[in-house]
């Protein structure tokens, strides 16, 4: 009898193992061959649900039922055509205007009917178009006026006075402010690696090489951009709430071990400035948090469930969490059609959709008003999520892990009902990380730690400039130009939200 019970138990264990393996196989199939986004069906009794697009767009979108969606698409498509016409005209009006007159010939002035000469009455605009002027390089010769005094002869010599002139960024070099700004914006904004840029520059006749560009970008960054980076870091550390995440990055000098960019970003709504900050480290250890924001930081960090974000190491810190990360485990399970817990996972996603939809549509003018609306409208919907998952009986496999993860992060998540500045998700910092992954894909790695630190500084300045709606190349060129004027540079005058910077370079 005992052997029979043992065999039955072993059989049950093997069935459980087989079920978990099937679950893994189904998930791998979805990763390899399935759609690259999660889309949950809409209940016909529900007017709108959260459509999970964060893997593609890293932002919440609301999906309406079929009738409303079709109507909305039709209306948007109809108005977008009109909007584009006005938008194109507005853009063309901002460009430098070049008139190309197509004059009537003498033959054209003869009337085709009566054959008499016609009177010229003017011109009209037949069409307008954008014309591209191909990139070119030219040499600027800085000529300085010089004067000689015929009355003063100190020490028997002539007294000469010359006008002031800008000093080069790098003496006896091809790298001017505009060239360096173009190289940086091409690589870090447009993700064009240096070896491709080399061919482009050489086609223009400028003999730049990959090695010289890399060396100059690193030197230029430490000389001219590090003060801005340090100031942005100090400003971010004054924020009450910040987003934080980390992403791997390959550095050859680290001998094959994993290195990381730690990314931070200010929240939306009640922050002082819009800042994105990147920090290079050769470790993912939680100690890096203290290196970035200091051990005395007493604000709140919005993060995922990674164990490095720990109050044991940083007792003064408060940690919030991201509902999108909690949702993701249920979304992965919802893709597996054969799994028993799939239907439960879909129900959780629908309930979470109500949370996102309600949060997104809150209307408020102050933190106090937002907090009151959250507690009144959002909290009951989030309570429904946790009430549902705690009542699921005997969850197994991935469903059990997803539920346990949600319960583990519940206290952190519910802090949004005590602090209105805490966001519901960590998507903004992931949006800032996304461009860096494209650069990493095209450039693969950094050779040295100085190169990786340079990447972090430039990512910081470019992503912060984008958040403040600046034209990247023009802004970088302006920054570099300030260091050619032979006067002390004030970092306050170079920050992306400076009024003069905004006036000159706002998109």
From TrEMBL:
<protein>
    <submittedName>
        <fullName>Transposase</fullName>
    </submittedName>
</protein>
<dbReference type="InterPro" id="IPR052344">
    <property type="entry name" value="Transposase-related"/>
</dbReference>
<dbReference type="Pfam" id="PF13007">
    <property type="entry name" value="LZ_Tnp_IS66"/>
</dbReference>
<feature type="domain" description="Transposase IS66 central">
    <location>
        <begin position="172"/>
        <end position="453"/>
    </location>
</feature>
<feature type="domain" description="Transposase IS66 C-terminal">
    <location>
        <begin position="460"/>
        <end position="497"/>
    </location>
</feature>
<dbReference type="Pfam" id="PF03050">
    <property type="entry name" value="DDE_Tnp_IS66"/>
</dbReference>
<dbReference type="InterPro" id="IPR039552">
    <property type="entry name" value="IS66_C"/>
</dbReference>
<dbReference type="InterPro" id="IPR024463">
    <property type="entry name" value="Transposase_TnpC_homeodom"/>
</dbReference>
<feature type="coiled-coil region">
    <location>
        <begin position="4"/>
        <end position="31"/>
    </location>
</feature>
<keyword id="KW-0175">Coiled coil</keyword>
<feature type="domain" description="Transposase TnpC homeodomain">
    <location>
        <begin position="22"/>
        <end position="98"/>
    </location>
</feature>
<dbReference type="Pfam" id="PF13817">
    <property type="entry name" value="DDE_Tnp_IS66_C"/>
</dbReference>
<dbReference type="InterPro" id="IPR004291">
    <property type="entry name" value="Transposase_IS66_central"/>
</dbReference>
């Amino acid at each position: 009898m005992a052997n029979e019970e043992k065999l039955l138990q072993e059989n049950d264990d093997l069935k459980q193992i087989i079920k978990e393996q099937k679950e893994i196989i189904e998930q791998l199939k979805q990763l390899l061959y399935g759609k690259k986004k999660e889309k949950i069906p809409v209940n016909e009794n529900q007017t709108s649900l959260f459509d999970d697009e964060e893997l593609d767009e890293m932002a919440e979108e609301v999906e309406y039922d079929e009738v409303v969606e079709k109507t909305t698409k039709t209306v948007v498509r109809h108005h977008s055509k009109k909007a584009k016409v006005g938008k194109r005209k507005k853009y063309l009006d901002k460009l430098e205007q070049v008139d190309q007159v197509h004059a009537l010939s003498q033959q054209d002035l003869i009337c085709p009917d009566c054959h008499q000469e016609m009177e010229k009455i003017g011109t009209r605009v037949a069409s307008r178009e954008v014309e591209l002027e191909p990139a070119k390089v030219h040499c600027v010769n800085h000529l300085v006026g010089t004067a000689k005094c015929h009355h003063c002869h100190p020490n028997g010599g002539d007294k000469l006075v010359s006008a002031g002139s800008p000093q080069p960024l790098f003496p006896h070099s091809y790298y001017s402010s505009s060239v360096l700004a173009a190289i940086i914006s091409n690589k870090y904004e447009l993700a064009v690696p240096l070896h491709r840029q080399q061919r482009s520059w050489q086609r223009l006749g400028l003999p730049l090489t990959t090695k010289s560009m890399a060396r100059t970008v690193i030197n230029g960054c430490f000389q001219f951009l590090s003060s801005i980076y340090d100031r942005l870091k100090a400003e971010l550390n004054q924020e009450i709430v910040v987003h934080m995440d980390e992403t791997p990055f390959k550095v050859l000098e680290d001998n094959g071990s994993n290195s990381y960019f730690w990314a931070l970003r200010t929240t939306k709504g009640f922050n002082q400035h819009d800042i994105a900050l990147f920090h290079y480290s050769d470790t993912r250890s939680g100690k890096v948090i203290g290196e970035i924001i200091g051990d005395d930081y007493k604000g709140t960090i919005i993060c995922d469930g990674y164990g490095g974000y720990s109050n044991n190491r940083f007792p003064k810190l408060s940690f919030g969490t991201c509902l999108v990360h909690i949702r993701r485990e249920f979304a992965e399970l919802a893709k597996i059609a054969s799994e028993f817990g799939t239907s439960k996972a879909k129900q959780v996603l629908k309930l979470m959709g109500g949370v996102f939809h309600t949060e997104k549509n809150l209307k408020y003018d102050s933190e106090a008003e937002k907090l009151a609306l959250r507690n009144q409208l959002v909290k009951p919907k989030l309570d429904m999520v946790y009430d549902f998952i705690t009542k699921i009986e005997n969850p197994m496999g991935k469903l059990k892990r997803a539920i346990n993860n949600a319960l583990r992060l519940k206290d952190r998540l519910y802090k949004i009902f005590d602090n209105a500045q805490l966001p519901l998700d960590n998507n903004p910092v992931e949006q800032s990380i996304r461009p860096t992954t494209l650069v990493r894909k095209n450039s693969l790695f950094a050779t040295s730690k100085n190169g990786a630190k340079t990447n972090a500084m430039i990512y910081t300045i470019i992503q912060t400039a984008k958040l403040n709606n600046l034209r990247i190349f023009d802004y970088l060129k302006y920054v570099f130009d300030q260091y050619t004027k032979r006067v002390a540079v004030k970092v306050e005058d170079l920050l992306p939200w400076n009024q003069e910077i905004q006036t000159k370079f706002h998109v």
